[in-house]
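Quick start: what a row looks like.
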Amino acid sequence: MTESAPTRTATAVDALAEEYLAAEAELDPIGATNIGLTGYDAMMPDLSPDGLAQRAALTRHTLAKLASAQPDDDTDLVTIAAMRERLEVSRELDERGDRLAELNNIASPVQTLRAVFDLMPTETVEDWGTVAQRLSAIPAAIEGYLQSLRLAAQRGDVAPARQVRAGITQSEANLGENGFFSRFVERAGDSVPGTLRADLDRASHAAQAGYQRLRDFLAEELLAQAPQADAVGRDRYPALARLFLGADIDLDDTYAWGQQELARIAKLMSETANQIKAGASVTEAIEVLEADPGRRLPSTDALRAWMQERADEAIENLGGTHFDIPGPVRKLECMIAPTTTGVIYYTNPSDDFSRPGRMWWSVPAGVTEFSTWRELTTVYHEGVPGHHLQIAQSVYNKAQLNSWRRMGSWTSGHGEGWALYSEWLMADLGYMDDPGNRLGLLAGQSLRAARVVIDVGLHCGFAAPAEVGGGDWTYDKAWTLLTRHAFMEPEFLRFELERYLGWPGQAPSYKLGEKLWLELRDQARTQAGPSFDLKAFHRDALNLGSVGLDVLRRAVLRQL
């Protein structure tokens, strides 16, 4: 993406950003591993109230320094605006005590304390020694987490019962001989000395003891205090929306737009179904596609190979034509995840690209066949021109950006919005002309639009759409809407719906982020007139890194 440019001289603002990132990595070593910073892989975070207070103090300290920071150039202007936006919303959540009560089915310590091991290197004896240290640190991290959950509960803030039950189930999946930790250390085999193997076994048992403690606390103490209601309410929702978008939205307008977008996509799906089989409904067209052996993959090995082929193909075709893709960014590894949630996700390359960017597929238990028509758009979403191009390009851009801008800054609406935008871009470039593949694109878009309606509507107390009976939202009404507009397996959709209920504001950031990216492109085209260059628009926007969408708009339109 980046055209050849001289290395920019670091400024005082860059030094402040680097200082903040280093301090944040010390307090959140899991986050450091996730973004590819080395040196923190043996550590776990302090999740106690005191540990969270240290992170809140760092936020306040950095905001105070930003208040007097003086920019030396346009890059500094963006850094100051982006850091201030991210840290101000973080401070608001800290002051409300939201961090203390974090518990849901997808993005809370229940998951992150385990998931970080997916990213840890295990090629050498030294690597496995680091793994043993981090495994051994799990019990203390969980003990701190329980302290925070207890304090939040004393204040009347407990995650909904549905999320507590999910935490119980997921904790149990890490226990015993068939649990994650036992299976994980078995991978060391005979490649490590006997003493280290004994250390790994002890560390695995310690990690399991920690998760047993967490499971028992959730089941025996917290569940009885958990509310049955899922909604967070309209008062709390705006800050969560800002957290995931980096922009303020009008909730009434957004809810109305979500319903309109859902109807628009439903119409496009009906038209595409008719192209697959004359007169067919969407469900009937899907049956035709599922019965086509040319669109089926018979195993997880075949799935991984197909993902890799399509990802490599996109990199080869788009590099040098629609995007300038530097050498290190041209490597993307496609992986089968060790979990079975059904989620597909991307993980960053390390700072030096020794760990490449990776696309992960968490295959549900018992699923052995896969449909290419449904998932081609996902490869573009997670790979190129989606997350991999966007994130790995930022990591690569050392000549212009400080480490926080390259690696530490992430806004879901920017990242997921770009990934959805990329799916449409590939359609515009002719990669989704096949009606089956296009129906897969539209099915994914329909799911994302349903997220907006359910998430905003239920959490903010809007009236449910007429198609599900109107009136107050309920779980059953949300389930009805989701299953009418998302053509996926019920167990995956159950996980999805629990995700919306337990992680307010995140799921809509995909579709709302895409909306804001499309609006920005139109604004940039209008501003530039006949000289508008789409390739240059993409390059200039992505070279900013993952900033909040309001900062992105102002930076691209030169309004900072």
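That is the whole record. The CA atoms of residues 173 and 431 lie 39 Å apart. The two ends are 23 Å apart (CA to CA).
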